[in-house]
Design goal:
The chain is mainly alpha-helical and 187 residues long. 39% of the residues lie in helices and 6% in strands. It has a two-stranded antiparallel ribbon with strand order 1-2. α3 packs antiparallel against α4. One of its GO terms (molecular function) is phosphogluconate dehydratase activity.
Length: 187
Amino acid sequence: MGLHLPGASFVNPGTPLRDALTRYATEQAIRNTEQSGNYRPFYKQIDERAIVNAIVGLLASGGSTNHTLHLVAMAAAAGITINWDDFTDLSAVVPSMTRIYPNGQADVNHFQAAGGMSLLIRELLEAGLMHADIPTVFGTDMTAYTQEPFLEEGKLIWKEGPTTSHDSDVLRPVSNPFSPHRRPYRA
């Protein structure tokens, strides 16, 4: 959905990289204020495309069913109505690309080591399953989310993430998924 910095999800707390990301996120939040002239409130950032991206990401990753409730609420906060039929309809075309708990033995650390969100997003974008052209808090579109953060000489930078999985038992490409579609969600 583009609501956090690219690659920030799995950076451990108490590390120099996390501290740099926290500083950058704070600075970016200030850059996204009305006073900066680049105002990006939630309601301007989240539209139908961002909600579809979130559902696609959830389905491809096999994420928590609790996430479905959160997405319904987030969509409603942006004035968008989604229901279980929307999840079911998208599940018919979104491949199952991960085997992480609860639908596999790997945890999120294994997922990150296999290629993580940058690879998952890259695969979904390249397959045309996600909208790249949505506004993000980072100030770009979703293609920036194929990158991962690094510190180089104390400076925060982003580099392209993996282009192939480092563990196909955990994360697979769209071209070779665990299943060509997710099981439909039922209310």
